[in-house]
Design brief:
Number of helices: 6
Helix content: 25-40%
Oligomer: single chain
Radius of gyration: 16 Å
Strand content: 5-15%
Strand order of the largest sheet: 3-2-4-1-5-6
Distance between the termini: 29 Å
CATH architecture: 3-Layer(aba) Sandwich
CATH class: Alpha Beta
Order of helices and strands: EHEHEHHHEHEE
CATH topology: Rossmann fold
């Protein structure tokens, strides 16, 4: 199995209208996002990375490229690392307009994401999609670290599935832009570290670990 699997949320996106961009083209990283991605690259650069896999969406690819620049490992794309399909229902709309344009949707998404009658892809399917990629890459790359660059909800769902936590905890302590959640594979996967790009870029220098099973209050929605 891989030494470690690093799940990386893409860096901040240029999105002045606060739109739900889902899989829309034309949403690249903001200047701050570029710096975040570079910090992620500096953080993971010293690690024995043997594979970098990314969502096909631009914001993830651009983040992955900064990691590749530091590690010398090429970026490969897996379509199963893309955004949660449920977000596509709202794409192009401003987050602030969702309650009036799609009455009840946002409230349901925040209150019971594991039971959404309007979802084309259930949270259970999303979590298994992401976990399956992580398990496959763990098996394919047994002699080093694997980096997976994806999106907020897919990463969170995959982590919850891999460590055996309830999917209803989707909105508890979700990863911010550029956050690296490092998992140690095994019969029972576990979270090793959680690093954010505002912290030291040196691996292992971090605050206390977060425990997803006992996280705090749900955050409000953020662009994915």
């Amino acid at each position: 199995m891989a030494a470690l699997v690093h799940l990386v949320r893409h860096a901040e996106v240029e999105n002045p209208g606060h739109l739900v961009y889902a899989d829309l083209p034309g949403f690249g990283l903001s200047p701050h996002g570029v710096e975040q991605a570079r910090r992620v690259g500096r953080y993971l650069g010293p690690r024995p990375v043997v594979a970098i896999w990314s969502s096909p969406l631009e914001r993830s690819l651009r983040t992955a490229e900064e990691i590749a620049a530091r590690t010398g490992v090429p970026v490969r794309v897996d379509p199963d690392l893309t955004e949660w399909a449920v977000i596509g229902r709202w794409k192009g709309h401003a987050w602030r307009d969702l309650p009036s344009t799609f009455p009840g949707d946002l409230e349901a998404y925040l209150e019971h994401p594991d039971s959404l009658p309007f979802a084309d892809e259930t949270l259970d399917a999303l979590s298994e999609r992401m976990a399956a990629v992580a398990r496959r890459l763990d098996a394919e790359h047994p002699h080093g670290d694997v980096v997976i660059v994806s999106h907020q909800d897919p990463i969170q769902a995959g982590i919850l599935r891999l460590i055996g936590s309830p999917l209803g905890a989707l909105h508890q302590d979700k990863p911010g832009h550029g956050t690296v959640v490092t998992l140690r594979p095994g019969p029972a996967w576990r979270v090793e570290t959680v690093w954010e790009p505002g912290e030291s870029p040196r691996f292992g220098e971090k605050r206390s670990l977060r425990v997803l099973e006992h996280a705090g209050n749900p955050d409000g929605p953020t662009s994915a």
